[in-house]
Amino acid sequence: MRVVLFHDEVSEKASPDEADVVTQMDAIAGALADLGHESVRVPCTLNLEAAAGRLRSAQPDIVFNLVESIGGQGRLISVAPQLLESLGIRHTGCSAAATFATSGKPLSKQLLSAANIPTPAWHSLDQLRAVVSIQPGRYILKSAWEHASRGIDDDSIVDVRNAAELAGALQRRLPELAGEGFAETYVEGREFNLSMLCGTVLPAAEIVFEGYSPGKPRIVGYSAKWDERSAEYVHTPRRFDFPPDDASLLGVLSDAAAACWRLFGLRGYARVDFRVDAGSKPWVLEVNSNPCLSPDAGFAAAVARAGLSYTEAIERIVNDATFY
Predict the structure, then answer these.
(1) What domains, with CATH codes, occur in the chain?
(2) pTM above the 0.70 mark?
(3) How far apart, in Å, are the Cα atoms of 45 and each of 10, 65, 91, 147, 309?
């Protein structure tokens, strides 16, 4: 079978998160070769007509969609599956509709709330300018569209007394958030990632914040994910082993992840990120419909913990590819 690896265009000045797609493609190409498949690589650019031409010329049996941004803009992530669907090409992963619904974080949170799946309260800049009061306390400022923890660092956490203070903090932060952001209630507690493969919830992973001082925010920011020289990267290992007392919590997390899969109509593979507060209540932070597939990333670690090889996981994703 001929498989096209459809991917972000990577420039010589690419940031670590942008360049990671090359690592993913190398690993996936190796797995496909082991499975007896041929793979070719096709970049997705802002010139969609040219991208469509390259796809047609490649004559794929399926496309493995790895596009996370186009022209450096995460908000365009759903354009890639839209293009594939318009061309009638079978592809891996989620539909354009599911990708759009999960990548636009405020929209995603609206849908989660409507489905009674707990997610931390949030405010857009327009909402903050219109409301009279908010709950004072700690908030985290996030990009509405960007992934890979872009724009997230210790300065993303703010303590505010009113809506005006929070609006001002968010406004000042917008350059780091690709121009559009929101403020989310900061949940102090534990952080979990639950990966899913073709509808099956894989073993839960917890991010451990080792040796963090009392005043340092326990968040997985950009440095923790991508800067191997940083203290945050070194001191945020993931773990899969839990004491018996956590059994009930792990069950609740698994059920919530499965509910997210059904709500958004996910397919192939995905990941749900949680915070768990002091009362052991889980809160969905984000639903990632196109998580990183690098061999050293969380998804591959969860696959291994489930007793599957990386190649077996890629085979399942390929076999689950469909026309939309």
Answers:
(1) 2-92 (3.40.50.20), 117-185 (3.30.1490), 188-319 (3.30.470.20)
(2) yes
(3) 10, 13, 18, 18, 32
